[in-house]
Write a structure and sequence with these properties.
Blueprint: E1 4-8, H1 17-30, E2 35-39, H2 45-55, E3 60-65, H3 67-77, E4 87-92, H4 98-103, H5 109-118, E5 121-133, E6 138-143, E7 146-150, H6 151-161, H7 168-180, E8 186-192, E9 195-208, E10 212-213, E11 217-218, E12 230-236, H8 240-245, H9 247-252, E13 261-266, E14 268-273, E15 279-281, E16 287-303
Parallel strand pairs: 1-2, 1-3, 3-4
Antiparallel strand pairs: 5-6, 5-16, 7-9, 7-15, 8-9, 8-14, 9-12, 10-11, 12-13, 14-16
Helix pairs in contact: 1-5, 2-3, 6-7
Length: 304
């Protein structure tokens, strides 16, 4: 088989991927996967590596890391011409692992090897977004799973600056509950395909390409990665006690049974806030509102 380029983030999964990778590499190669390997050295490096790999004619890129690594690699691939764009393959690590869960991809090196050797693929939509980066600059970035403004942004910021030693579910749950006590719902407006669908205080506004985020929360159970649409979930002005009680709904996919939660579908969404509101994009906290998102249908091939 043609060599697969593995882009490995050794810092993912609270730094444990550095120890995991040698054994995983042996498992992949023993199964018959031919590998070239490069290790990331810091934020943004995976994007640069994936972009260069695409321009170099690589056919398949395997990311080894979490959702942030998947996002960086996907952004690099999406900067290459569609006619020559490599396929994205996954060996999931990291804290959340929500993108592979949304795709139904099993974890582990053996499962990744089986996917690579089988060679099946699925073409998915991606979302393109613009927002204000943490340094104040206007920024454009793709995402492949879910982004949100409000609670998710605060949680992602907390998760990314604290230890993740207890794994994704516990890290996100602890950070979500910890965030409650200082959470202030912001005044936001949401416009979908040119029509304002919400204005007022909101706990969070999630823009979903896939169904899961936050270490397993089922934000939009019916979101499809290949339907050409975004699911926009608006959770209105919930109080702290109400939000805490409603946590189970976020995990079991019944959040729409709450009267302050509403679902909209469309190809483009704008989220604006009276004051800058933190964003979460594929598990990372890269900036703040205003947030403009549109769908790019069937833009990325994923090995399944």
């Amino acid at each position: 088989m043609e060599p697969v380029l593995a882009i490995v983030n050794p810092a993912s999964s609270n730094g444990s991927t550095a120890r995991f990778w040698p054994k995983a590499r042996r498992a992949l190669e023993d199964a018959g996967v031919v590998l070239d390997v490069v290790m990331t050295e810091g934020p943004g490096h995976a994007t640069a590596l994936a972009r260069a790999a695409g321009l170099d004619g690589r056919k398949t890129i395997l990311y080894v890391g979490g959702d942030g690594t998947a996002n960086e690699v996907a952004n690099g691939l999406l900067e290459t011409p569609s006619c020559a764009r490599p396929r994205l393959a996954a060996l999931p690590r990291g804290t959340g692992g929500d993108f592979p869960k949304s795709m139904g991809l099993a974890a582990g090196a053996e499962a990744a090897a089986a996917r690579l050797l089988r060679g099946s693929e699925r073409t998915i939509d991606v979302a393109v977004s613009t927002f204000v980066a943490l340094d104040g600059s206007a920024t454009r970035r793709h995402f492949i799973n879910i982004a949100d403004a409000g609670l998710g942004g605060y949680v992602a910021e907390r998760v990314n600056r604290t230890s993740k030693v207890f794994g994704g579910f516990a890290s996100f749950l602890y950070s979500t509950i910890s965030t409650f006590w200082n959470l202030e719902n912001h005044e936001m407006s949401v416009t979908v395909d040119g029509v304002e669908v919400f204005t007022g205080r909101a706990t969070t506004v999630a823009v979903c390409n896939g169904p899961r985020f936050g270490g397993g929360m089922l934000m939009s159970p019916d979101a499809k990665l290949d339907d050409g649409l975004l699911d926009i979930v608006v959770i209105g002005d919930m109080g702290k006690a109400d939000l805490l009680v409603s946590m189970r709904r976020l995990y079991n996919g019944t959040i729409f049974s709450h009267p302050k939660t509403h679902l909209h579908r469309g190809k483009e969404v704008r989220v604006e806030a009276r004051r800058p509101t933190p964003l979460e994009i594929d598990g990372e906290h890269p900036g703040t509102t205003p947030f403009h998102v549109w769908v790019e249908p069937l833009a990325l091939r994923v090995v399944v």
